[in-house]
Specification:
This protein is largely without helices or strands. The protein has one domain. The protein is 12% helix and 6% strand. It has one helix and two strands. Strands 1-2 form a two-stranded antiparallel sheet. A hairpin with a 6-residue loop joins strand 1 and strand 2.
Length: 97
């Protein structure tokens, strides 16, 4: 049974466990899904923001691209919800009380 992922743009639920076409869009925000921000190889700290060394440079991280290495980031949380960020910050702050 396929699970659910989260759209990096809005946090909306996206069906997981299947191949993502370049033209697919989020059912919640209609944003592109085949984007760097939704990829498991995306990393803010990596060179070209991608940990896949063979991947071509992508100028826009939030627009659909032709990257052959794209894999939807299973279990990722979307950018639309700040609840998890707030709870993580609170838990971190509580460590120093």
């Amino acid at each position: 049974m396929p699970g659910l992922n989260s759209c990096a743009l809005c946090g909306g639920a996206v069906e997981a466990g299947r191949e993502m076409s370049r033209k697919e869009t989020c059912p919640s925000c209609s944003g592109d899904l085949h984007i760097c921000l939704n990829c498991r190889f995306y990393s803010e700290t990596a060179h070209n923001k991608c940990i896949e060394p063979k991947a071509d440079f992508q100028r826009s991280r939030d627009k659909a691209n032709f990257c052959d290495y794209f894999q939807f980031n299973v279990g990722a949380t979307g950018g639309g919800s700040d609840d998890s960020k707030d709870s993580a910050k609170k838990a971190f702050d509580d460590l120093f009380k």
